[in-house]
Amino acid sequence: MRPDTLSAAQELPGHNGRVPRPVCPADAAVIALHRYPEEADAHERPVYAAWVADALRRGVYVGFLALDEETVVAGAGLTLLEWGPTRGDASPCRARIVNVWTHPEQRRRSLARTLVTLCLEAARERGVTRVSLGTSGMARPLYEGLGFRASGTGIGLVLGGEEPPAEA
């Protein structure tokens, strides 16, 4: 199932009426809620929603939502990063899987797997050869099942600001 051929009427195979569709700028607030579900982070949502809406318009964000009738039950996104060609890889872009979320009552039904697969297909269609993501221990088997492997070669630096909280 190619992402650009999805219609609102196409159901996810084996997902009891849940319908996937590409995201649009009007979905930015929902995506921001998925990224910042905790009320303590509610102040982050408007800034992120504005970024998502703009990134969608610029073509550097692609995402999909699964709906049960009109209720969003899962989502996943792909951020496209202009990286430049590297040794052994002529593709100028990289991508990062982001905002993977499934309603707690809908988990373990392959919704996230299906939506992430749609994101990976969108990356392939754009010539992206390298995709990364951050994950929790609970979601690691999902991503490993899709072929992701741990990579511990990167280190980071925050320029001009507070250090981010340590990742678990």
UniProtKB/TrEMBL annotation:
Annotated keywords: Acyltransferase, Transferase
Coiled-coil segments on the chain, per record: none
Protein name: GNAT family N-acetyltransferase
UniProt xrefs under InterPro entries: Acyl_CoA_acyltransferase, Bact_Acetyltransf, GNAT_dom
SUPFAM superfamilies for the chain: Acyl-CoA N-acyltransferases (Nat)
PROSITE patterns xref list: GNAT
Lineage per the UniProt record: Bacteria, Thermotogati, Deinococcota, Deinococci, Deinococcales
Pfam family, one: Acetyltransf_1
Segments forming domain N-acetyltransferase: 21-168
